[in-house]
Amino acid sequence: MKIDVLVAEIGSTTTVVNAFSDIETDQPRFLGQGQSPTTVLEGDVNIGLNRAVKSLRENLGLDEINYDEMLATSSAAGGLKMTVHGLVYDMTVKAAREAALGAGANIHMVTAGRLRRSDIKKIKDISPNIILLAGGVDYGERDTALNNAEVIAGLNIDVPVIYAGNIQNHEDVREIFKEKGKANLLYIVDNVYPKIDVLNVEPTRKIIQDAFEDHIIHAPGMTRLRDFVNGPIIPTPGAVMEASKLLKDHIGDLVTLDVGGATTDIHSVTEGSEEVSRILISPEPVAKRTVEGDLGVYINMRNIVEMIGIERLSKDLNMETERIENLIDNHVPIPKTDHQKKFVERLALEAVITSVHRHAGGFRDIYGSSGKKTLAQGKDLTNIKWIIGTGGALTRLPNRINILKQISLSNKGDKLLPNNEAKILIDNNYIMASLGVLSKKYKEAALYLLKQSLKVS
User: Does residue 221 surpass a pLDDT of 70?
Assistant: First the structure.
Protein backbone atom coordinates (compact mmCIF):
# COMPACT_ATOMS: atom_id res chain seq x y z
CA MET A 1 0.00 0.00 0.00
CA LYS A 2 1.50 3.31 -1.10
CA ILE A 3 1.11 6.22 1.31
CA ASP A 4 1.71 9.65 -0.21
CA VAL A 5 1.21 11.82 2.87
CA LEU A 6 1.01 11.29 6.62
CA VAL A 7 -0.40 14.12 8.72
CA ALA A 8 0.29 14.11 12.45
CA GLU A 9 -2.04 16.06 14.73
CA ILE A 10 -0.34 16.44 18.11
CA GLY A 11 -3.07 17.56 20.51
CA SER A 12 -3.06 18.37 24.19
CA THR A 13 -4.66 14.99 24.96
CA THR A 14 -4.36 12.77 21.90
CA THR A 15 -1.92 12.38 19.00
CA VAL A 16 -3.54 11.29 15.75
CA VAL A 17 -1.84 10.24 12.50
CA ASN A 18 -3.83 10.17 9.24
CA ALA A 19 -2.69 8.50 6.01
CA PHE A 20 -3.59 9.62 2.48
CA SER A 21 -2.85 8.26 -0.99
CA ASP A 22 -3.45 9.28 -4.64
CA ILE A 23 -3.02 12.82 -3.40
CA GLU A 24 -2.25 14.32 -6.81
CA THR A 25 -5.13 12.61 -8.61
CA ASP A 26 -8.75 13.70 -8.92
CA GLN A 27 -9.76 10.98 -6.42
CA PRO A 28 -7.46 11.18 -3.40
CA ARG A 29 -8.06 8.61 -0.66
CA PHE A 30 -8.10 8.65 3.12
CA LEU A 31 -6.53 5.32 4.08
CA GLY A 32 -6.85 5.22 7.83
CA GLN A 33 -5.92 6.61 11.20
CA GLY A 34 -3.84 5.73 14.23
CA GLN A 35 -3.89 7.38 17.61
CA SER A 36 -2.15 7.45 20.97
CA PRO A 37 -2.20 9.62 24.09
CA THR A 38 0.06 12.66 23.67
CA THR A 39 3.30 12.25 25.63
CA VAL A 40 4.23 15.78 26.74
CA LEU A 41 4.40 14.55 30.35
CA GLU A 42 6.90 11.88 29.30
CA GLY A 43 9.18 14.65 28.06
CA ASP A 44 8.93 13.97 24.33
CA VAL A 45 5.94 14.27 21.99
CA ASN A 46 7.69 11.91 19.57
CA ILE A 47 6.95 8.97 21.88
CA GLY A 48 3.23 9.49 21.36
CA LEU A 49 3.79 10.13 17.65
CA ASN A 50 5.63 6.84 17.21
CA ARG A 51 2.86 5.03 19.09
CA ALA A 52 0.24 6.65 16.84
CA VAL A 53 2.17 5.54 13.75
CA LYS A 54 2.32 2.02 15.18
CA SER A 55 -1.45 2.17 15.77
CA LEU A 56 -1.92 3.25 12.14
CA ARG A 57 0.27 0.40 10.90
CA GLU A 58 -1.79 -2.12 12.89
CA ASN A 59 -5.10 -0.62 11.70
CA LEU A 60 -3.95 -0.84 8.06
CA GLY A 61 -2.56 -4.37 8.54
CA LEU A 62 0.93 -3.40 7.36
CA ASP A 63 4.32 -4.69 8.43
CA GLU A 64 5.81 -1.22 8.13
CA ILE A 65 4.79 2.34 7.23
CA ASN A 66 6.45 3.94 4.20
CA TYR A 67 5.43 7.40 3.11
CA ASP A 68 6.67 10.20 0.85
CA GLU A 69 5.80 13.20 3.00
CA MET A 70 4.75 14.04 6.56
CA LEU A 71 2.97 17.23 7.64
CA ALA A 72 1.94 18.17 11.18
CA THR A 73 -0.26 20.31 13.37
CA SER A 74 0.24 20.82 17.08
CA SER A 75 -1.54 22.24 20.09
CA ALA A 76 0.46 20.29 22.68
CA ALA A 77 1.89 21.95 25.80
CA GLY A 78 -0.40 24.96 25.50
CA GLY A 79 -0.01 25.39 21.75
CA LEU A 80 1.15 28.71 20.32
CA LYS A 81 1.47 31.23 23.18
CA MET A 82 1.27 34.86 22.12
CA THR A 83 1.08 38.32 23.66
CA VAL A 84 -0.59 41.17 21.75
CA HIS A 85 0.18 44.89 22.16
CA GLY A 86 -1.64 47.74 20.41
CA LEU A 87 -2.78 51.33 20.77
CA VAL A 88 -6.53 51.50 21.48
CA TYR A 89 -8.19 48.36 22.84
CA ASP A 90 -11.37 48.51 20.72
CA MET A 91 -9.44 49.25 17.52
CA THR A 92 -5.87 48.12 16.77
CA VAL A 93 -5.69 45.80 19.78
CA LYS A 94 -8.91 44.05 18.76
CA ALA A 95 -7.70 43.69 15.17
CA ALA A 96 -4.34 42.24 16.28
CA ARG A 97 -6.10 39.87 18.66
CA GLU A 98 -8.42 38.62 15.90
CA ALA A 99 -5.41 37.98 13.65
CA ALA A 100 -3.60 36.00 16.35
CA LEU A 101 -6.61 33.88 17.30
CA GLY A 102 -7.43 33.13 13.67
CA ALA A 103 -3.89 31.88 13.13
CA GLY A 104 -4.34 29.35 15.92
CA ALA A 105 -2.70 31.17 18.82
CA ASN A 106 -3.57 31.08 22.50
CA ILE A 107 -3.38 34.68 23.71
CA HIS A 108 -1.94 35.02 27.20
CA MET A 109 -1.74 38.82 27.42
CA VAL A 110 -3.26 41.86 25.73
CA THR A 111 -2.22 45.49 26.34
CA ALA A 112 -3.31 48.87 24.99
CA GLY A 113 -1.09 51.94 24.97
CA ARG A 114 2.52 52.28 26.11
CA LEU A 115 3.98 49.24 27.84
CA ARG A 116 4.53 49.68 31.55
CA ARG A 117 7.01 48.01 33.90
CA SER A 118 4.33 45.63 35.13
CA ASP A 119 3.56 44.69 31.51
CA ILE A 120 7.21 43.94 30.83
CA LYS A 121 7.38 41.67 33.87
CA LYS A 122 4.28 39.78 32.71
CA ILE A 123 5.71 39.28 29.23
CA LYS A 124 8.87 37.77 30.73
CA ASP A 125 6.82 35.53 33.04
CA ILE A 126 4.63 34.31 30.19
CA SER A 127 7.62 33.61 27.92
CA PRO A 128 5.52 33.78 24.74
CA ASN A 129 6.35 31.97 21.52
CA ILE A 130 5.51 35.07 19.44
CA ILE A 131 4.86 38.75 20.27
CA LEU A 132 2.48 40.72 18.06
CA LEU A 133 2.96 44.49 18.00
CA ALA A 134 0.41 46.85 16.40
CA GLY A 135 -0.78 50.42 16.88
CA GLY A 136 -2.03 53.36 14.87
CA VAL A 137 -3.89 53.50 11.59
CA ASP A 138 -1.70 54.12 8.55
CA TYR A 139 -0.33 57.70 8.66
CA GLY A 140 -1.82 58.16 12.12
CA GLU A 141 -0.31 57.99 15.63
CA ARG A 142 3.26 56.64 15.57
CA ASP A 143 4.94 57.12 18.95
CA THR A 144 3.18 54.43 21.00
CA ALA A 145 4.13 51.59 18.65
CA LEU A 146 7.71 52.89 18.36
CA ASN A 147 8.04 53.07 22.15
CA ASN A 148 6.71 49.52 22.49
CA ALA A 149 9.07 48.30 19.78
CA GLU A 150 12.02 49.79 21.72
CA VAL A 151 10.87 48.07 24.91
CA ILE A 152 10.25 44.67 23.32
CA ALA A 153 13.49 44.71 21.34
CA GLY A 154 15.32 45.45 24.58
CA LEU A 155 13.97 42.42 26.39
CA ASN A 156 16.48 39.67 27.07
CA ILE A 157 14.39 37.02 25.30
CA ASP A 158 14.79 35.52 21.83
CA VAL A 159 11.19 35.63 20.65
CA PRO A 160 9.90 36.37 17.13
CA VAL A 161 8.16 39.75 16.97
CA ILE A 162 5.57 40.62 14.32
CA TYR A 163 4.97 44.31 13.65
CA ALA A 164 1.54 44.96 12.09
CA GLY A 165 0.97 48.64 12.83
CA ASN A 166 1.24 52.07 11.20
CA ILE A 167 3.01 51.70 7.85
CA GLN A 168 5.08 54.83 8.52
CA ASN A 169 6.97 53.03 11.30
CA HIS A 170 8.41 50.22 9.17
CA GLU A 171 11.87 51.73 8.68
CA ASP A 172 12.18 52.83 12.32
CA VAL A 173 11.09 49.44 13.67
CA ARG A 174 13.66 47.71 11.45
CA GLU A 175 16.41 50.01 12.77
CA ILE A 176 15.36 49.39 16.39
CA PHE A 177 15.65 45.61 16.04
CA LYS A 178 18.81 45.86 13.97
CA GLU A 179 20.51 47.93 16.69
CA LYS A 180 19.57 45.30 19.28
CA GLY A 181 20.95 42.49 17.12
CA LYS A 182 17.49 41.00 16.63
CA ALA A 183 16.77 41.76 12.99
CA ASN A 184 16.38 38.01 12.35
CA LEU A 185 13.50 37.85 14.85
CA LEU A 186 11.47 40.66 13.27
CA TYR A 187 8.59 40.15 10.82
CA ILE A 188 6.93 43.23 9.29
CA VAL A 189 3.50 42.90 7.71
CA ASP A 190 0.63 45.12 6.54
CA ASN A 191 -1.30 47.02 9.21
CA VAL A 192 -4.07 44.96 10.82
CA TYR A 193 -6.13 48.16 11.22
CA PRO A 194 -5.11 50.44 8.31
CA LYS A 195 -8.17 52.71 8.48
CA ILE A 196 -10.94 53.38 10.97
CA ASP A 197 -13.41 50.46 10.95
CA VAL A 198 -11.30 48.45 8.47
CA LEU A 199 -9.81 45.10 9.53
CA ASN A 200 -6.94 43.54 7.55
CA VAL A 201 -6.10 40.42 9.54
CA GLU A 202 -5.26 37.79 6.90
CA PRO A 203 -1.66 38.94 6.13
CA THR A 204 -0.81 38.84 9.85
CA ARG A 205 -2.39 35.40 10.25
CA LYS A 206 -0.17 34.03 7.51
CA ILE A 207 2.97 35.56 9.02
CA ILE A 208 2.11 34.15 12.47
CA GLN A 209 1.95 30.65 11.00
CA ASP A 210 5.21 31.21 9.12
CA ALA A 211 6.92 32.40 12.31
CA PHE A 212 5.49 29.43 14.20
CA GLU A 213 7.04 27.03 11.72
CA ASP A 214 10.36 28.88 11.57
CA HIS A 215 11.01 29.38 15.26
CA ILE A 216 8.67 27.53 17.60
CA ILE A 217 9.62 24.66 19.86
CA HIS A 218 6.53 24.66 22.07
CA ALA A 219 6.49 21.13 23.46
CA PRO A 220 9.15 18.69 24.65
CA GLY A 221 10.68 16.88 21.69
CA MET A 222 9.51 19.33 19.03
CA THR A 223 13.07 19.88 17.86
CA ARG A 224 13.32 16.20 16.91
CA LEU A 225 9.90 16.29 15.26
CA ARG A 226 11.66 17.72 12.20
CA ASP A 227 13.42 14.35 11.85
CA PHE A 228 10.00 12.99 10.82
CA VAL A 229 8.17 15.98 9.34
CA ASN A 230 9.37 17.26 5.96
CA GLY A 231 6.37 19.51 5.25
CA PRO A 232 4.53 22.35 7.01
CA ILE A 233 3.90 22.41 10.78
CA ILE A 234 1.11 24.78 11.88
CA PRO A 235 -0.98 25.22 15.05
CA THR A 236 -3.92 22.81 15.09
CA PRO A 237 -6.57 25.55 15.53
CA GLY A 238 -5.03 27.42 12.60
CA ALA A 239 -5.34 24.26 10.50
CA VAL A 240 -9.03 23.93 11.38
CA MET A 241 -9.53 27.56 10.35
CA GLU A 242 -7.77 26.92 7.02
CA ALA A 243 -10.12 24.00 6.36
CA SER A 244 -13.15 26.09 7.37
CA LYS A 245 -12.21 28.93 5.02
CA LEU A 246 -11.65 26.48 2.16
CA LEU A 247 -15.09 24.94 2.74
CA LYS A 248 -16.86 28.29 3.00
CA ASP A 249 -15.79 29.20 -0.51
CA HIS A 250 -17.51 26.07 -1.84
CA ILE A 251 -20.54 25.31 0.38
CA GLY A 252 -21.39 28.63 2.02
CA ASP A 253 -21.29 30.32 5.44
CA LEU A 254 -20.38 27.98 8.28
CA VAL A 255 -19.28 27.63 11.87
CA THR A 256 -16.94 24.84 13.02
CA LEU A 257 -16.87 23.63 16.61
CA ASP A 258 -13.94 21.70 18.04
CA VAL A 259 -14.48 20.47 21.60
CA GLY A 260 -11.14 19.20 22.88
CA GLY A 261 -9.64 17.89 26.07
CA ALA A 262 -8.24 21.28 27.12
CA THR A 263 -10.22 23.90 25.17
CA THR A 264 -13.23 24.48 22.97
CA ASP A 265 -12.55 26.34 19.72
CA ILE A 266 -15.16 28.05 17.55
CA HIS A 267 -14.33 29.03 13.95
CA SER A 268 -16.96 31.02 12.06
CA VAL A 269 -16.56 32.05 8.43
CA THR A 270 -19.39 34.38 7.42
CA GLU A 271 -20.01 37.97 6.40
CA GLY A 272 -23.25 37.89 8.38
CA SER A 273 -26.59 39.20 7.17
CA GLU A 274 -27.17 42.57 5.52
CA GLU A 275 -29.87 43.37 8.07
CA VAL A 276 -27.51 42.99 11.03
CA SER A 277 -24.56 44.65 9.29
CA ARG A 278 -26.57 47.88 9.01
CA ILE A 279 -26.84 48.15 12.79
CA LEU A 280 -23.44 46.66 13.73
CA ILE A 281 -21.45 48.91 16.08
CA SER A 282 -17.95 47.85 14.98
CA PRO A 283 -16.49 45.60 12.24
CA GLU A 284 -15.87 41.89 12.69
CA PRO A 285 -13.53 39.69 10.59
CA VAL A 286 -15.13 37.36 8.06
CA ALA A 287 -13.15 34.47 9.58
CA LYS A 288 -13.26 34.63 13.37
CA ARG A 289 -11.92 32.23 15.99
CA THR A 290 -12.50 32.21 19.69
CA VAL A 291 -10.89 29.77 22.10
CA GLU A 292 -12.36 29.00 25.51
CA GLY A 293 -9.46 27.85 27.67
CA ASP A 294 -11.74 26.87 30.56
CA LEU A 295 -13.93 24.54 28.50
CA GLY A 296 -12.23 21.20 27.91
CA VAL A 297 -13.79 17.78 28.48
CA TYR A 298 -10.65 16.17 29.93
CA ILE A 299 -7.93 18.48 31.25
CA ASN A 300 -10.48 21.17 32.18
CA MET A 301 -13.31 18.78 32.95
CA ARG A 302 -13.75 20.04 36.52
CA ASN A 303 -14.38 23.60 35.27
CA ILE A 304 -17.39 22.39 33.32
CA VAL A 305 -18.58 20.22 36.20
CA GLU A 306 -18.57 23.29 38.46
CA MET A 307 -20.53 25.27 35.86
CA ILE A 308 -23.23 22.58 35.69
CA GLY A 309 -23.22 21.46 39.34
CA ILE A 310 -23.22 17.91 40.71
CA GLU A 311 -26.93 17.89 41.50
CA ARG A 312 -27.90 19.04 38.01
CA LEU A 313 -25.53 16.49 36.46
CA SER A 314 -27.11 13.78 38.55
CA LYS A 315 -30.59 14.84 37.40
CA ASP A 316 -29.66 15.30 33.71
CA LEU A 317 -27.86 11.94 33.51
CA ASN A 318 -30.28 10.08 35.79
CA MET A 319 -27.36 8.86 37.90
CA GLU A 320 -26.73 8.91 41.63
CA THR A 321 -24.34 11.62 42.83
CA GLU A 322 -21.97 8.89 44.05
CA ARG A 323 -21.65 7.54 40.50
CA ILE A 324 -21.11 11.07 39.14
CA GLU A 325 -18.32 11.68 41.65
CA ASN A 326 -16.75 8.35 40.71
CA LEU A 327 -16.79 9.34 37.02
CA ILE A 328 -15.12 12.64 37.92
CA ASP A 329 -12.42 11.00 40.05
CA ASN A 330 -11.68 8.34 37.42
CA HIS A 331 -12.10 10.47 34.29
CA VAL A 332 -10.32 9.11 31.19
CA PRO A 333 -9.17 10.85 27.97
CA ILE A 334 -11.20 8.54 25.72
CA PRO A 335 -14.50 7.28 27.23
CA LYS A 336 -15.21 3.59 26.82
CA THR A 337 -18.28 2.67 28.93
CA ASP A 338 -21.83 3.95 28.38
CA HIS A 339 -21.72 5.89 31.65
CA GLN A 340 -18.44 7.54 30.68
CA LYS A 341 -19.81 8.49 27.25
CA LYS A 342 -23.00 10.00 28.70
CA PHE A 343 -20.93 11.98 31.18
CA VAL A 344 -18.66 13.38 28.45
CA GLU A 345 -21.67 14.12 26.22
CA ARG A 346 -23.15 16.30 28.97
CA LEU A 347 -19.80 18.08 29.38
CA ALA A 348 -19.56 18.56 25.60
CA LEU A 349 -23.08 20.00 25.44
CA GLU A 350 -22.22 22.58 28.10
CA ALA A 351 -18.96 23.42 26.31
CA VAL A 352 -20.76 23.84 22.97
CA ILE A 353 -23.56 26.09 24.22
CA THR A 354 -21.33 28.22 26.45
CA SER A 355 -18.61 28.69 23.83
CA VAL A 356 -21.02 29.55 20.99
CA HIS A 357 -22.79 32.13 23.17
CA ARG A 358 -19.41 33.67 23.99
CA HIS A 359 -18.42 33.66 20.30
CA ALA A 360 -21.61 35.14 18.91
CA GLY A 361 -22.64 38.76 19.18
CA GLY A 362 -25.99 40.07 20.31
CA PHE A 363 -28.47 42.91 20.24
CA ARG A 364 -28.20 46.00 22.44
CA ASP A 365 -30.89 48.54 23.21
CA ILE A 366 -29.66 52.12 23.47
CA TYR A 367 -31.88 54.88 24.80
CA GLY A 368 -31.49 58.49 23.62
CA SER A 369 -33.49 61.64 23.07
CA SER A 370 -35.30 60.00 20.15
CA GLY A 371 -36.21 56.91 22.17
CA LYS A 372 -34.98 53.31 22.01
CA LYS A 373 -32.64 52.19 19.27
CA THR A 374 -31.55 48.56 18.75
CA LEU A 375 -27.95 47.97 17.69
CA ALA A 376 -25.86 44.84 17.17
CA GLN A 377 -22.43 44.11 18.58
CA GLY A 378 -20.08 41.19 17.94
CA LYS A 379 -20.00 38.36 15.42
CA ASP A 380 -23.18 37.76 13.43
CA LEU A 381 -23.91 34.03 12.91
CA THR A 382 -27.50 34.44 11.66
CA ASN A 383 -26.53 33.71 8.05
CA ILE A 384 -24.81 30.40 8.88
CA LYS A 385 -25.88 27.53 6.60
CA TRP A 386 -23.75 24.76 8.12
CA ILE A 387 -22.74 23.80 11.67
CA ILE A 388 -19.73 21.49 11.60
CA GLY A 389 -18.50 19.27 14.43
CA THR A 390 -14.86 18.19 14.56
CA GLY A 391 -12.40 17.09 17.25
CA GLY A 392 -12.55 13.95 19.36
CA ALA A 393 -15.79 14.69 21.21
CA LEU A 394 -17.95 15.89 18.31
CA THR A 395 -16.81 13.16 15.90
CA ARG A 396 -16.96 10.16 18.22
CA LEU A 397 -19.72 10.67 20.81
CA PRO A 398 -23.00 8.86 19.97
CA ASN A 399 -25.21 11.95 20.45
CA ARG A 400 -22.94 14.44 18.69
CA ILE A 401 -25.62 15.58 16.19
CA ASN A 402 -28.18 16.24 18.93
CA ILE A 403 -25.59 18.23 20.87
CA LEU A 404 -25.03 20.55 17.90
CA LYS A 405 -28.79 20.90 17.29
CA GLN A 406 -29.09 22.55 20.70
CA ILE A 407 -27.22 25.64 19.45
CA SER A 408 -30.19 27.23 17.69
CA LEU A 409 -32.59 26.04 20.37
CA SER A 410 -30.54 27.82 23.06
CA ASN A 411 -31.24 31.29 21.62
CA LYS A 412 -33.58 33.40 23.75
CA GLY A 413 -33.76 36.04 21.03
CA ASP A 414 -30.95 38.29 22.18
CA LYS A 415 -28.01 36.52 20.47
CA LEU A 416 -26.83 36.47 16.85
CA LEU A 417 -26.85 32.66 16.65
CA PRO A 418 -27.54 30.32 13.72
CA ASN A 419 -31.23 29.56 13.21
CA ASN A 420 -32.80 26.11 13.16
CA GLU A 421 -32.48 25.90 9.36
CA ALA A 422 -28.69 25.50 9.65
CA LYS A 423 -27.70 21.94 8.78
CA ILE A 424 -25.41 19.74 10.89
CA LEU A 425 -22.28 18.19 9.39
CA ILE A 426 -19.84 15.88 11.18
CA ASP A 427 -16.18 15.41 10.33
CA ASN A 428 -16.79 11.67 10.33
CA ASN A 429 -13.18 10.70 9.63
CA TYR A 430 -11.82 13.23 12.18
CA ILE A 431 -9.44 14.68 9.60
CA MET A 432 -10.42 18.35 9.36
CA ALA A 433 -7.27 19.70 11.04
CA SER A 434 -5.12 17.37 8.95
CA LEU A 435 -6.80 18.57 5.77
CA GLY A 436 -6.28 22.18 6.82
CA VAL A 437 -2.51 21.72 6.79
CA LEU A 438 -2.77 19.50 3.70
CA SER A 439 -4.52 22.37 1.88
CA LYS A 440 -1.32 24.41 2.15
CA LYS A 441 0.18 22.20 -0.57
CA TYR A 442 -2.73 20.19 -2.02
CA LYS A 443 -5.84 22.39 -1.97
CA GLU A 444 -7.99 20.40 -4.40
CA ALA A 445 -7.24 17.12 -2.66
CA ALA A 446 -8.00 18.66 0.73
CA LEU A 447 -11.37 19.98 -0.48
CA TYR A 448 -12.31 16.60 -2.02
CA LEU A 449 -11.44 14.74 1.20
CA LEU A 450 -13.22 17.32 3.37
CA LYS A 451 -16.45 16.86 1.45
CA GLN A 452 -16.09 13.10 1.73
CA SER A 453 -15.61 13.23 5.49
CA LEU A 454 -18.53 15.63 5.94
CA LYS A 455 -20.71 13.70 3.46
CA VAL A 456 -21.63 16.85 1.57
CA SER A 457 -21.53 17.41 -2.19
Answer: no
